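Two entries, shown back to back:
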Amino acid sequence: MGKPARERTLPENEAKAVARNLRISPQKLNLVAGLIRGKKVNKALADLQFSRKRISGDVRKTLESAIANAENNHNLDVDDLIVAEAYVGKALVMKRFSPRARGRVGRIEKPFSHLTIVVRQVQESA
C-alpha cells in the first residue's frame, strides 16, 4: 500500500540528473553549463575534463549521472545522446560578517547553486 507512481514529466527519449547545493555562485556555474549545452555527450565530457574551472568536476559528475540514468532507467542509446538542457538555479546564500576598520562590519555572501542537466536521444540523420 504505497503511493501511486508519479507520472513521468519528461518525454520518453529524455533523462535528467540534478546536483543540488553546489558551493559556487549561479553566475559562475552558468558559464560552465553554457559550455556543454547542445553538444553530444562525449564531446561535452571531454570539454569538462580539460576545463580549468574548479566546478567543472561536479558538472562532469552530474552529466555522467544523467547519462547513466538514460542508459539504465530509460534504455536509451548512449552514442545518440546530446545535452538538451543545462540550467542553473539559485539556492541558499550563507551570510558571514568580517570586521573592518573603525568598528564597521563587512558582509560576505557565500552563494549556493542547483544544476539540472537533461540529455535527449536524437537519431543521426545520414
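entry 2 starts here
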Amino acid sequence: MLGIAFKPESDDVRDSPALEVVRRLVEAGAHVTATDPRAIASARRAHPELTVDYRESAEETMRDADAVVLLTEWVQFRDLDPRAARALVRRALLVDGRNALDATVWADAGWRVRGLGRAAVGPGR
C-alpha cells in the first residue's frame, strides 16, 4: 500500500479510505505492507489492531509484492519510475485508487494497471 493518510501532505488518518482498504485486506487474510511519508505513526496509534508491516520507503514496501495499491497521491508516489518499480515486485499489478498515475506509462513498463472507473491496461488486461 502506497499511502495511508487521508490526503497528501498530512499525517491525518481519521476516516482514511486507505485504512479501510487495509483493514478489509487484512481481514481477508492478505499480508499488507504499507508506507506513507508522514502517517505511519498516526496509523499505528489510531489502529493498533491492524496487522500491517509498515516500511519507510515505497521501494521497501514494493519489494516482492504481488500487487501495489496507490491509496494517497503523494508526489513521491506519483513520481515513481515504473521500470525501476517493476524490478522490485514479484507481480506487476498496480491498482491506482486515486487515478493519479499515467496508466499508459505504467503499462508500457510492463504493469497491468487498474484504476477506479477505468478499463484495465497493460499485459493480461
